[in-house]
Amino acid sequence: MKSIASKEDRPPGRSARSGKAAAAIAAAALAFAGELQAAETAVTIRADQPGPTINRNIYGHFSEHLGRCIYGGYWVGEDSPIPNVRGIRVDVVQALRKLHPPVLRWPGGCFADTYHWKDAVGPRDRRKPILNVHWGNVLENNHFGTHEFMDLCEQLGAEPYFCANVGSGTVQELADWVEYTTYGGRSPMADWRRANGREEPWKIRYWGIGNENWGCGGNMTPEYYARLFRRYATYVRSYPGNRVFKIACGANSFDYRWTEVLMRDAGRYMNGLSLHYYCGSGKKSRSATRFDEGDWFFQLRNALRMEELLRRHIAIMDRYDPRKRVALIVDEWGAWHAVEPGTNPGFLYQQNSLRDAMVAALTLNIFHRHADRVRMANIAQTVNVLQAMILTDGPRMLTTPTYHVFEMYKVHQGATYLPAAVECPDYAFGGEKIPQVSVSASEDKQGRVHISLVNVDPNRPAPTRCRLEGFRPGRVSGRILTAPEMQAHNTFDRPDYVKPAPFGEARIDGGAIVLRMPPKSIIVLEASGAAEK
Ligand code: AHR
Q1: Residues 506-515 pLDDT 10s
Q2: Residue nearest atom 9 of ligand 1, based on CA coordinates
Q3: Is 332 among the catalytic positions?
């Protein structure tokens, strides 16, 4: 078999020879020969050329008042038979804490631009209900508001990221929210907070000024939003003891003009600019669990487009901000499948398979490569919505394959990025191809090197040799996430069908780490050893 050299960050492309027949012949040949003699993947990790810190906020989460994310997912109320602390589910918090969640974005999403925070503080039985117009026209009783969210963040050990209402709110409403939550002196808002049971101000660094203001957040042009942003941002004050970080609403996927205008007209007033990219679902089937290899390929190819998106948005930001002061915040990303049969279409409840785990692993590897600019990301959404970490069914709870990726990858949080070059065969399907292997590496504060490797090919293994420049590995261990089928997922009756297992097959050979990645697998290796001059 001929090996095709490819660079890790090469954008996915079309092969010259296309056509279903050629692909079918190639697939059959691979099925026959692949197990016997797959081409070797060569990885070179530059421990001698360390890059930026991988901001732990890249492993952030997003929870919206949408479907069963907040209500049922986190919040069951103090009188619930489901074990809870002050109304918040114990099982969900315990599971999420294992991911070391750094930051949690709330209350939306599209919901944020309909949210009036004052309706959701004070005694719960007196809170004003509203209609959740974006997500199923259900009644929102506002029982989960600012105090409950801050309690959740404290229970999770996560920093809060508030997303403020620009679409249907007012500047005064936002200024009051900042004063209510973060001002420690005497003032009407701070005193109201005290009357509602919270003496000390909270520390709330991250403030998003609107959400998707090009769409559900007001259908604005970038010029109009940039002006509004400047005005709203003026009143998001850093009160003593709290330093705010202002995040402007960024582009929808490939809308580079939005980034251009925002950086040009408002760049100097912001600390971060967001970006939303959902990589969709399969080509023929949009089901989360009933799909074929064509759908698998299509989804992973689209996930890899995050690389191109980041490059192009960052190139624009670099022109206006060459010192990279403004962070790129990918505060919504992930797969978006059809809702599970029989569930409310407005609730975006979807299952989560090994394919979603691949999406997560590939995307996190891409974020690492842009760690100097991408300093926060928030996968959508934490519980019961879109590409979730956790699914619940009444008192039952399960962790998804995506959860396991976040758990395996947490070793990269706050570590130093190490550049990795990859030469690997292509994974080709239907006349298109993507690199078979994706790799990312980092060095933690204890001097251990972690290497995350993804073999996206569902049919062929990837024999791999990792050379580490500037690091001599003495010991290597690892964990693997894989399953017999592409569609493998966890259910409430079989919650541990997809879960990580120890991977003992990596060995050290002539100073390199050698392993054979099974088809459709995600592996995280840990190498301890000594730095080499
Ligand atoms: O995450 C679901 C929705 O997707 C969010 O509310 C919105 O911002 C985006 O369009």
Answers
A1: 999 999 999 9
A2: 109
A3: yes
Q: Is this prediction's pTM over 0.85?
A: yes
Which atom of ligand 1 is the closest one to the Cα of 112?
6
Residue 77 CB contacts under 8 Å (≥ 6 apart), including other chains: 84, 87, 143
Strands, DSSP E only, in 77-178? 84-85, 88-89, 103-106, 130-132, 138-140, 159-164
Cα–Cα distance measured from residue 379 to residue 277, given in angstroms and rounded to the nearest whole number = 10
17-21, 217-221, 315-319: least confidently modelled range: 17-21
**Please, what's the b/e burial string for 59-69 (b: 16 or more CB within 10 A of its CB; e: otherwise)?**
bbbbbbbbbbb
Residue 29, classed as helix, strand or coil, is helix
Rounded-to-integer distance, Cα 124 and Cα 184, Å: 24
**Tokens 């990269």 sit at which residue?**
412
**Would you say residue 14 has pLDDT above 70?**
no
Mutation test of ligand 1: which of 132, 216, 274, 330 has the most ligand atoms closer than 8 Å to its C-beta? 216
**Residue of 333 and 39 predicted with greater confidence:** 333
How far apart, in Å, are the Cα atoms of 411 and each of 59, 440, 441, 476? 11, 12, 10, 15
pLDDT at 532: 86
Q: Are 268 and 242 in contact (CB under 8 A)?
A: no
Strand partners, 328: 273, 374
Any atom of ligand 1 within 6 Å of the Cβ of 64: yes
CB of residue 8 inside a 6 A radius of ligand 1: no
Does 485 participate in catalysis according to the annotation? no
Q: One-letter amino acid identity for 37?
A: Q
Among 76, 59, 143, which residue's Cα sits nearest to residue 384? 76
User: Of 179, 332, 407, 423, which is the active-site residue?
Assistant: 332
Ligand 1 touching residue 332 (CB < 6 A):
yes
Tens digit of pLDDT for each residue in 216-271?
A: 999 999 999 999 999 999 999 999 999 999 999 999 999 999 999 999 999 999 99
User: Which atom of ligand 1 is nearest the CA belonging to 62?
Assistant: 1
Ligand 1 geometric centre to CA of 380 (Å): 8
Distance CA 197, CA 181 (A): 12
- Strand ranges (E), 90-195: 103-106, 130-132, 138-140, 159-164
What's the CA-to-centroid distance between 74 and ligand 1, angstroms?
19
The pLDDT tens digits of the residues spanning 44-84 come to: 999 999 999 999 999 999 999 999 999 999 999 999 999 99
- Three-state DSSP at 502 gives strand
Q: Measure the CA–CA gap between 227 and 262, rounded to whole angstroms.
A: 9
In order of 249, 316, 379, the CA distances from 255 in angstroms are 12, 12, 20
- What 3-state DSSP class applies to 482? coil
Average pLDDT of the residues in 402-412: 98
Q: How far is the CA of 310 from the centre of ligand 1 (A)?
A: 19
